[in-house]
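Hi F.,

I've been meaning to write this up properly since the lab meeting, where we talked about keeping a consistent format for the predictions we share between groups. The idea is simple: the sequence comes first, exactly as it goes in, then the structure tokens exactly as they come out, then a line or two of notes. No screenshots and no reformatting. I'm using this chain as the first example so we have something concrete to point to.
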Amino acid sequence: MKRLLACVVAVAAAAVQAAPLRVCADPDNLPYSRADGSGFENRIAQLVADDFGVALEYAWLPDLRGFVRKTMGAGLCDVIIGVPVSFGRTLNTRPYYRSSYVLVLPAGAAPAPASFDDPRLARWRVGVQLIGDDAAASPPGHALAQAGVTANVVGYPVAGDRPAAARMLEALDRGELDAAFAWGPQAGYYARGAARNLRLYEVPPPAALKDQPFRFAIAMGVRRGDQALRARLDDFIARRQADIDRILADYGVPRVGEGVP
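Output, unedited:
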């Protein structure tokens, strides 16, 4: 009987071990993910699957309102490769990178502004991302408004045939903008594809916006309550951080230090 029970347990464990890594992802959201596997989160997902020795499967859905509910909440997938560490709809791992909103300028425009009070920002045509379904201003947009810079600011909403960051940096590349504030991973990726030499700078937020973070720690999110999968992913991140870093570097993702919550 003991031998039979041991066999049953071993078979069950093998079945669990062989279960595919089911990832929730947007099919067209570079540089993060794409159905053809060309995003950096695709590559990290494949790294996880290979490390676990399992197949990789996707549940594809545009990352808009209801994304978590319609994918992970519907039982279609088990992990989201990139979520803010404080994201409340999933149980989150330790962070595997930290990035920031950055200012993108053509080479030669340096020295970059050291603060949002730099008078050049009031003269430049400045692009900012509008985020969320309600087209709210991103943190740099709030900082520009705090500094009284509004008349020359051009907002780029999420809605469009290409990502907002891509459209914004293309406008900067064409000379239609003088500067642009964008989320670091997107800025780094799209700046590398520009014809002009575009450079990234981190401008600290004003003291009046100390509760509006510009830096964010990014983790992997699993279903709330799935402590086992989170533990496995935490172990993976600890062991394979150097490999993750190489993937992020391939995509030009700017990273900041450990001092991010």
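Notes:
The CA atoms of residues 71 and 77 lie 6 Å apart.
The radius of gyration is 21 Å.

If this format works for you, I'll send the rest the same way.

G.
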